Automatic annotation (TrEMBL):
Domain Aminotransferase class V: 22-384
Keywords: Aminotransferase, Pyridoxal phosphate, Transferase
Cofactor section: pyridoxal 5'-phosphate
UniProt-recorded name of the protein: Aminotransferase class V
GO MF terms held by the record: transaminase activity
Record family assignment: Belongs to the class-V pyridoxal-phosphate-dependent aminotransferase family.
Source domain of life: Bacteria
Gene: iscS
InterPro entries, alphabetized: Aminotrans_V_dom, Aminotrans_V_PyrdxlP_BS, PyrdxlP-dep_Trfase, PyrdxlP-dep_Trfase_major, PyrdxlP-dep_Trfase_small
Length: 393
């Protein structure tokens, strides 16, 4: 991306004038057009009525499914819009009809919400959970995955980009293994969507969970679930309402023929439109170009932080993303965050619980997480480093 394009994108994001935002893995600053879309719809809803405005916006609301399909290379029949990635993930995971002694294989980078889901079924239904450790270079071991698979393996569940580490897991290679063995495959793309190009066909995944608020730059309270058409009838529904069905009689009902069976009717239509606008915004820029820019900025940040005395950068693995994790010698991560916030620089603190297996393995209780997006600049990275030096002095 050229400098003039970056400046134009920053000008279209009012928040960039207020502070330096390196908490994009938490919640990105939305483009102004996303904010205007949400507020505009809410104003019309307040003036004319919720159902009436929903009917007037039927086509734009429907187009959000098409935008999601373009983002991940899926059909609209394979997409359900939900409130967040945790809801999407649990709708998929808990839809699987697990039997006692079934096995779930995951990685040491799995997110806490997903880990809780595993532990819950382990305790109540007797499933077994196998964790594939990273190798010495910080990469997910495909050979260890192959060795872990048995006839009881029911699911491979992988978080593509972890919450408190900078590496990227090889989801397509994992998907090829899952396909070869006929195992269901669930990918958590919470940190991936909007940061890295996604293609569910290339991944070979059966289910994919996504949030809107992170790298997609959509409003909080938005997300979606992808469910491959061929597995939809193999999954049970946790919740149902009239929206989930295509026919109801006094004797029974027939489910919809698409992934919207996993939705409930009532949701915030203004936020749905905001999600669609954010996805269209990313697609117009080009997710491949976004990914190149993020890799460049994150690499620069790691290089500059690693050169500072007293700073330990924790990221490993052959492919790294826009999440940069580090520690400041002698200073608690929460204190680093607070002192940077006083200078109008946003970062986050990654707690041990967020990626429990990985953090415990490396004896980390917390880290500072600085996550870049394409609208960040080299000058902002320099200012972050200068302020960290001030903390150390």
């Amino acid at each position: 991306m050229e400098a003039n394009e970056i400046q134009a994108l920053r000008a279209a994001t009012s928040g960039t004038a207020e502070r330096i935002h390196f908490n994009n893995a938490g919640s990105s600053l939305p483009p102004d057009v996303v904010l205007e879309t949400v507020i505009g719809y809410l104003k019309e809803e307040a003036l004319l009525g919720g159902y009436e405005i929903e009917a007037a916006y039927k086509s734009p609301l429907e187009n959000v499914y098409a935008s999601i399909g373009r983002l991940i290379n899926a059909s609209v029949e394979e997409v359900a819009i939900v409130e967040n990635a945790s809801m999407a993930w649990h709708l998929a995971f808990n839809a699987i009809d697990f039997q006692r002694d079934d096995e779930v294989i995951t990685s040491e980078m799995e997110y806490v919400t997903n880990l809780i889901g595993f532990l819950n079924l382990q305790n109540h239904q007797g499933i077994a959970v196998k964790v594939i450790p990273n190798d010495a270079r910080g990469n997910f071991s495909l050979s260890a995955l192959e060795e872990a698979i048995t006839p009881r393996t029911r699911l491979i569940a992988i978080t593509q980009i972890p919450s408190t580490a900078g590496n990227v897991l090889p989801v397509a290679a994992i998907g090829a293994i899952a396909r070869r063995h006929g195992i269901l495959y669930l990918v958590d793309a919470c940190q991936s969507a909007g940061q890295i190009p996604l293609d569910v066909k290339e991944m070979g995944c059966d289910m994919l969970s996504v949030t809107g608020r992170k790298y997609l730059r959509a409003p909080r309270g938005t997300g979606f679930l992808y469910v491959r058409k061929e597995v939809q009838d193999k999954l049970k529904l946790l919740f149902m309402d009239g929206h989930s069905t295509k026919a109801v009689t006094e004797e029974g009902f027939t489910l919809r023929d698409d992934a919207r069976r996993f939705e409930l009717y009532e949701k915030n239509r203004a936020l749905v439109l905001g999600l669609g606008k954010a996805i269209d915004y990313a697609l117009a820029i080009g997710v491949d170009r976004i990914w190149q820019r993020i890799q460049y900025l994150a690499g620069l940040m790691r290089e500059k932080l690693a050169a500072l005395p007293g700073i330990t950068v924790h990221d490993s693995g052959d492919q790294q993303c826009g999440i940069v994790t580090f520690s400041v010698a002698g200073v608690e991560s929460t204190d680093v965050k607070a002192r940077l916030a006083a200078k109008k620089i946003n970062v986050s603190v990654g707690k041990a619980s967020s990626t429990l297996v990985y953090m415990n393995k490396h004896h980390l209780t917390s880290i500072v997480r600085a996550s870049v997006h394409y609208y960040n600049t080299e000058e902002e990275i320099d200012e972050l480093c200068a302020n960290i030096m001030a903390i150390l002095s």
